[in-house]
Amino acid sequence: MILVTGAAGFIGANFVLDWLAQSDEPVVNLDKLTYAGNLQSLASLQGDPRHQFVHGDIGDRTLIDRLLSEHQPRAIVNFAAESHVDRSIHGPEDFIQTNVVGTFHLLESVRAYWSGLDETAKAAFRFLHVSTDEVYGTLGATDPAFTENNPYEPNSPYSASKAASDHLVRAYHHTYGLPVLTTNCSNNYGPYHFPEKLIPLMIVNALAGKPLPVYGDGMQIRDWLFVKDHCSAIRRVLEAGTPGETYNVGGWNEKPNIEIVRTVCALLDEMSPRADGKGYAEQVTYVKDRPGHDRRYAIDATKIHRELGWKPAETFETGIRKTVRWYLDNQAWVQQVQSGEYRQWIDQQYGTKA
């Protein structure tokens, strides 16, 4: 079996759903269930003996030690993280506690567990740490895309905390021999995405008749990766990656934010037109840019393709169409995650901006 941390979040939930759709290998799902953790995303697994949910924190050494002893996982996939840049600007402490201190405690428990395995099990064990392209900083318009050899230059409390966790994971390999793997991914999108991030926020606000807030001039460029492609990359790295190595995972889809917003509006115009016959693009509202907003991210995913044979199955055009369709078909899920805390956050972040 495998232990997956943060598996009630956006990417983690998709990973577990895809894993159990393709394998009967059981999953123990550990999640703290912060605002972005949502067990409703895993409702289809209710009663499935292959999936066991445990409510807890990666920083809880007693709990982690017990889970490792009880379940004897052959691998751990660590998604657990605070992951929203804007939230990290307003309240960085949670990011330090989860992403840095939490990862440290998790590594300590895993190191003790791994050290006690027999030689065959030790050789087969893997700890896969899921990270982000934001640790590399920002790119100019003509700079080459990030490779695994780019220096770390994080520019937000979020990306700094993830960079620190990456360094800890690397250190535990080089110091203790722990067989770790690290993936650094570009911007994910797809089903079950909490509606504070760009694409789901645009869909939800558009359908509600609310403004579509776009930071600055909207020309910040990101590489977009369909979440199920990301999950397939993680499965491939877990299966065949070389311990101690880092693999960048990207979608080969660099696009400015305003183009993403206009694409979402056009798809909604097609799939769920406004009653007044006008286009959703009329709801676009430019708001003051956030502090330290990185201008461009781009991932060079050549290494994972060359060494492991992975490449994304979806183009942005196919992936974004599937994403918009999913949100239209799953309004009950959207309503369920829109708690009072979520609405308060959106009001705080965008309500006073013009």
**C-alpha Rg, in Å?**
20 Å
Distance between the termini: 50 Å
Order of helices and strands: EHEEHEHHHEHEEHEEHEEHEHHHH
**Which band does the percent of strand residues land in?**
15-25%
CATH topology of the domain at 2-188 and 226-252 and 294-313: Rossmann fold
Question: Quick one: CATH superfamily of the domain at 2-188 and 226-252 and 294-313?
Answer: NAD(P)-binding Rossmann-like Domain
Biggest sheet strand order reads 3-2-1-4-5-6-10
What best-fitting shape do the alpha-carbon axes yield? globular
Mean pLDDT: 93
Question: Count of helices?
Answer: 13
Q: What helical percentage do the residues reach?
A: 40-55%
By CATH reckoning, the class of the domain at 2-188 and 226-252 and 294-313 would read: Alpha Beta
Polypeptide structure, described:
The chain is an alpha/beta fold and 354 residues long. The chain has a domain at 2-188 and 226-252 and 294-313: Rossmann fold (3-Layer(aba) Sandwich), CATH 3.40.50.720. It has helices at 10-22, 61-71, 85-90, 93-115, 119-124, 157-176, 198-207, 227-240, 257-271, 302-308, 316-329, 331-337, 340-350, and strands at residues 2-5, 27-31, 51-55, 75-78, 126-132, 180-185, 187-189, 212-215, 221-226, 246-249, 254-256, 284-287. α1 (10-22) crosses α8 (227-240). The protein is globular and about 65 Å long.
